[in-house]
Amino acid sequence: MDASKIGLIPAHTKSRNAMNRRHAGKLLYLSLLLGLSACRLPPEVVPSPPASEPTVLRAESATGGTLFNGAWELGLPFRSSGINDVARLFAGMEGSNASPFHQQQMQSLWRTHDLGRGQKIRSWAAREIGDLQRHRALFYPFSGPDYLFARELFPSAETYILCGLEPAEPLPDLQTLTPGEIAAGLDALRSALTTIMSAGYFITQDMRHDLQSSRFRGVLPVLLTFLVRTGAVVDSVDVVRIDGSGNAVLAGVSGGAAPGLMIRFHTGIGGMKRLFYFRQDLSNVSTRAGGPFLTFVAKQGYPPALVKSASYLMHDEGFSTIRNYVTNSTSGLVQDPSGVPYRHLMNAGLPLSLYGDYRGTIGIFSQQQPDLMAAYRNGQHLVQPVDFGFGYLYSASNTSLMVARRR
């Protein structure tokens, strides 16, 4: 079900010369003589051994931020302050190079989310899942680029693991774009964000069209926007992949897209955080028990899982591997009815708390759960109200949340 979209008109941008002056002091050539020995990597990320694919070289700038390598088709590499400036432009933050129109529209979208859901979700999560929030990592399968709700529900996590089928593509060198191309890119970005900001979820087909319709392609602009809008400062972005042992290693780009991203960032509280996004097919064809992807997730300490607006894919036996992992190998689960079917949670013997109400799914899906509907009414579980919509059931009157914990 789509949500009404705001009217979009071309944004008036500052002149290209003004933008060039803004970024002139923030660009630096990266010497190809610098080796991976200069990198300081977190334990989860190790340099890739020599292989046929190019390795992204990285070096530390004078201020300690990681530089981008021009091999990722960014033109001149950005310093860490440069990529944070780009993120602020995408997010329409005050003081950025964004036009007044883009700033106003992004602020309006953010206010719609924060007043409609954000504040209520943060309050609920602090009250109801504080124990799960204390885990250092979060696993969010079928997320796409939805860092927004991951952050609202699990603000204390140090590592976020997101995945989807949407590509992670390189950012263009902004100095090569015309004002019209920048305006069109920001228009497409706002369009991609409108539904999740207003209704609380992405419409996958619309998002993919929006994300591929301009020069700001793929999930990275969305992730950067959500990061700075939720108070983060972006320090670096690296291309990564998962090797056969389940380790994230620095990688190259194949066919114009990255296998995965690692975004380092920090907030006003705590130290460095990491956001991983992997382009990962979670069907049994591509994800197997004990395989590299799920091994990587497990190495983060068997984190709790968040599942929202997952197209009911785990109701299909073709996704039984990821369903079994979420059910049996995570420390807890927060989900809407589009995630693991209620019967599987019950068969696993997991303690379950229910919130809101369940009256069936929306019409475009056929996976109704009469046993879940009965569970809301037969007194088997404690049922508590919620004052916000969540996932496809975006109205507070019919939304359903399930929280499962490992015994």
Brief overview:
With 407 residues, the protein is of the alpha/beta class.
Structure description:
With 407 residues, the chain is of the alpha/beta class. It has a domain at 16-280. Helix content is 31%, strand content 15%. The protein contains twelve helices and twelve strands. It has helices at residues 16-24, 80-91, 100-128, 130-133, 147-153, 179-198, 204-211, 220-229, 292-298, 320-328, 342-347, 370-375, and strands spanning 45-46, 137-140, 159-164, 233-242, 248-250, 260-266, 272-279, 305-307, 332-335, 352-356, 383-384, 400-405. The strands form two sheets. Strands 1-5-4-6-7-3-2 form a seven-stranded mixed beta sheet. Strands 8-9-12-10-11 form a five-stranded mixed beta sheet, with no helix packed on it. Strand 4 and strand 5 form a beta hairpin. Helix 3 (100-128) runs parallel beside helix 6 (179-198) and helix 6 packs antiparallel against helix 7 (204-211). The protein is globular, with a radius of gyration of 21 Å.
Radius of gyration: 21 Å
Secondary structure: helix percent: 25-40%
Q: Which strand order do you get reading across the main beta sheet? A: 1-5-4-6-7-3-2
Structural class: alpha/beta
Give the percentage of residues in beta strands.
5-15%
Question: Which helices and strands occur, and which strands form pairs?
Answer:
Blueprint: H1 16-24, E1 45-46, H2 80-91, H3 100-128, H4 130-133, E2 137-140, H5 147-153, E3 159-164, H6 179-198, H7 204-211, H8 220-229, E4 233-242, E5 248-250, E6 260-266, E7 272-279, H9 292-298, E8 305-307, H10 320-328, E9 332-335, H11 342-347, E10 352-356, H12 370-375, E11 383-384, E12 400-405
Parallel strand pairs: 1-5, 2-3, 3-7, 8-9, 10-11
Antiparallel strand pairs: 4-5, 4-6, 6-7, 9-12, 10-12
